[in-house]
Write a structure and sequence with these properties.
Strand content: 15-25%
Number of helices: 10
CATH architecture: Alpha-Beta Barrel
Helix content: 40-55%
CATH class: Alpha Beta
CATH superfamily: Alanine racemase
Strand order of the largest sheet: 7-6-5-4-3-2-1-8
Shape: globular
Distance between the termini: 25 Å
Bound molecules: pyridoxal-5'-phosphate
Oligomer: single chain
Largest sheet: 8 strands, parallel
Number of strands: 8
Radius of gyration: 16 Å
Number of domains: 1
Length: 207
């Protein structure tokens, strides 16, 4: 990560690392915590609660990010538990999160997920609908949109996907870009990523 930032002529503190701990055994996570990592990404609300509940006292500064698709019936739990929700991607979820933020007087940071490759099987708002959705999230639901997140298609070049996310962010006055995983984080950082989400390159293959 540091090499890639340097190569891109970017300051070392211009991007953050989220260690993606989904499906990992605690025995794999503990050494990463001991090494000082405090920011973790999880795919499922329930799994995250089971894994991390009670750990905040043991590891001050722990920051938990939801990076998997969110169902509206889990919005209450997600708002209660996560520091950051990266997968706001439709009207129903935006509304459910806004309601819970009011009810719980908690305000996790919110990112909008963009289905950058317009893939059937992936979550996220379509790129051409992103501007409207960002506006709705802000104006209709009063949400603060901190950033955008994407997962590019497995096949094909990643650069254009990252460039497109950055362009959508730029024209909406958004600065945080969650993009880049184990196999493409260097490219993502070259294209302006401010957060990479890395699982297998840290923990090894998932079970
Ligand atoms: C699993 C996952 C990652 C991490 O993937 P790796 O290839 O293991 O680095 C990053 N982002 C999201 C949204 C994921 O679901």
């Amino acid at each position: 990560m540091h090499k890639a930032l340097k190569a891109a002529g970017r300051p070392q503190d211009s991007a953050i690392l989220t260690a993606v701990s989904k499906t990992q055994a605690w025995s794999a996570i503990e050494p990463v915590l001991e090494a000082g990592q405090r920011r973790f990404g999880e795919n499922r609300v329930q799994e995250a609660v089971e894994r991390w509940d009670g750990k905040r006292d043991l590891y001050p500064g722990l920051e938990l990010r939801l990076i998997g698709p969110l169902q509206s019936n889990k919005a209450a739990d997600a708002v209660a538990f996560f520091d950051v929700i990266e997968t706001v991607d439709r009207d129903k979820i935006a509304r459910a999160i806004a309601d819970e933020i009011q009810k719980q007087a908690r305000s996790p940071q919110l990112l909008i997920q963009v289905n950058i490759g317009e893939e059937e099987q992936k979550a996220g708002i379509a790129p051409r609908e992103a501007d409207t959705f960002i506006k709705t999230a802000r104006e209709t639901y009063g949400l603060t949109v901190a950033g955008l997140m994407c997962i590019p298609p497995v096949e094909g070049p990643r650069g254009p996907c990252f460039a497109l996310l950055k362009k959508i962010a730029g024209r909406n006055g958004i600065t945080q870009l969650s993009m880049g995983m184990s196999d493409d984080y260097e490219t993502a950082l070259a294209f302006g990523s401010t957060e990479i989400r890395v699982g297998s390159a840290i923990f090894g293959a998932r079970s």
